[in-house]
Amino acid sequence: MSRTTIVRALADRTPLVSDGAWGTMLQSVGLKPGECPELWNIDHPEQVYRIAQQYADAGADMLETNSFGATRFKLAHWGVEERCAEINEAAARLSRRAAGDRLWVLGSVGPTGKMLLLGDVSEQQLYDAFTEQVTALQRGGCDAICVETMSDIAEARQAVRAAKEQTSLEVIATFTFERTVQGEYRTMMGTAPVEAAAAMLDAGADIVGTNCGNGFERMIDIVREIRAALPDVPILVHANAGLPLQRGGVDCYSDTPESMASLAPQLVAAGASVVGGCCGTNPHYINAISRAVRPGG
To answer: Of all helices (H) and strands (E), which one includes residue 292?
Structure first.
């Protein structure tokens, strides 16, 4: 495809396919428990590039960056916070190299681990940390910033604001929801899907959605809820490969590439504009999903 903005590409209502899990893939090539995944952009760049290239080869229209935990707050755990800009630029360059001129690159921005409600951090400190990250991701070649796996609207708002005010990139914002005993979906902070989406649009996000925590089956309900309230807004979904199961102390996931692909058209029918994977997925999942949602696939 010829690369325009993501929002413009979605105007014809044809769904796009995103990539899958990064942590899962890094673990498969040697990332050890307790090791900093984002430092692999510097220490093992070819391994990171090959993951991005595998997703490109699998049929993804967009590739994320290996930068989910690359704010200085998270990087401080490994004593590498002063390398924040270097790590994020490297992450973007590696995914850009795999994407070429054809695919979009999404700069992954996750939670900082700091709690505003507990006084761990101020809104200005969050804004400054996100600014450092997103500007480095833009310098490295990203097309959009994907603020993801959020639960706190106040924190997510600072990330979206930083991306909109300090870069020229499109901005995606996604939250993680769990199903309550009443059958409703809420973040760990008690926020409903429509409330989260509306707040992100108000902060300036171009695309909203949900990621992690659920497989496609539950994501269908979440997307349907958002779409009913916001009929014209692009919605992105990065779903887990079902629910995690513990086997021998290792997380395994219930859904296969085929079972996820069988649900993908229903997810699109519910209102998803961009479909991709999160924990437990890999290029095989993305290839199956790609074939399931493309016209004539």
So the answer is: helix 283-293
CA distances from 217 to 9, 16, 49, 270 (A): 26, 19, 31, 11
d(CA 173, CA 168) in angstroms, rounded, equals 16
Q: Where are the domains of the chain?
A: 6-293
- Can you read off the two tokens belonging to residue 245? 């199961």
Distance, CA of 5 to chain centre: 17
Q: Count the Cβ atoms, other than its own, within 10 Å of residue 34.
A: 7
**Closest-CA residue to 142 (of 96, 207, 181):** 96
193: three-class secondary structure by DSSP: helix
Q: At residue 200, does pLDDT exceed 90?
A: yes
CA distance linking residue 297 with residue 102, whole number of Å: 20
Q: Across the beta sheet with 235-239, what order do the strands follow? A: 16-17, 274-277, 235-239, 207-211, 170-175, 144-150, 104-109, 62-64
Q: Is 34 left (phi over 0), alpha (psi -120 to 50) or beta?
A: left
pLDDT in tens, 117-174: 889 999 999 999 999 999 999 999 999 999 999 999 999 999 999 999 999 999 999 9
- 1 pLDDT band, cuts 50/70/90, is very low
Phi, psi of 198 (to 5 degrees): -65, -40
- Cα distance between residue 203 and residue 256, in whole Å: 36
Tokens at 211, concatenated: 């990621």
Q: What is the DSSP letter of 64?
A: E
Mean pLDDT check: name the lowest of 124-128, 201-205, 212-216, 292-296: 292-296
CATH top-level class for 6-293? alpha beta
